[in-house]
Request: fold
Amino acid sequence: MASDSQRRVAESIGVPVAKRHIFLCCDQTTPKCCEKERGLAAWEFLKRRLKELGLSEQGGILRTKANCLRICEGGPIAVVYPEGAWYAGCDPPVLERIIQQHLIDGRVVDELLIESHPLRSD
Reply:
């Protein structure tokens, strides 16, 4: 059972108001999809832009740094839920398109997709 403290943290990071969640493969133990520095630069850009645009915390977008998303080429790799949209080459210019078109406007960026598969609850 979750503690009150854990619930407060979840609320403070915006879990109750989240519309989308982006996971970015970076800071890998053993970098495979791209150089570690490149992945970390993408992560820093993503964090900064989400904050600048008011999308972090209570803005409806959650973000998670993933050690590995298991598509070990053409990175940095990102996946956005609930749509289950997997993206390749997520350097800052690509992330900016994903932020504007997918995270804000709700439209998957088809030309950047590796695969799209929403998770189902059944």
Summary: The chain has a mean pLDDT of 93. Residues 36-52 form the longest helix (17 residues). The chain has three helices and five strands. The helical segments are 4-12, 36-52, 92-104.
